[in-house]
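Field reference: sequence -> structure
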Amino acid sequence: MSTPHPTSALDDQRMPVRIRLAAAWTSLMFLYAYVDILNFFTPGVVDDILDGRVFEFDLSQTFSTAALALMSVPIFMIVLSTTLPARAARVANLVVAALYVPVTAFNVLGEDWVLFYGLGIVLELGLLGLIMRSAWSWPRAATVAAGVERASVR
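Structure field:
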């Protein structure tokens, strides 16, 4: 005979938009880094790097600076999502995520390992979609205040 255990619903608190955005940008950066790291195990990649080439580009200070600048933007979006005023954070997230869709899709061009890169790109695009959706549907102050009033009445 088993004794009944009381079941209770877990408290599923609403996550603030800022935290959701910062988490999505962080996840995106982990994906970017992990795909790049795993790429080193693709045959010939390390040899090409040692010969001074990445993809179709010569390794140079200009290439490295451009790559750093390109990846610095999503890195800074992690902190900007939590520190900018709400309106500026919303716009920045919408604009930067929209601009990074083609940047992300570009990464599959010329690659032999389409399944590997395809999966990485699909996951990255999913996160960019989550970022745009979260920023687009950022709650208005009146909506948040009404929710607080309803919660305090209960």
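Note: Helices lie at 17-39, 45-50, 61-83, 86-106, 114-136, 141-153.
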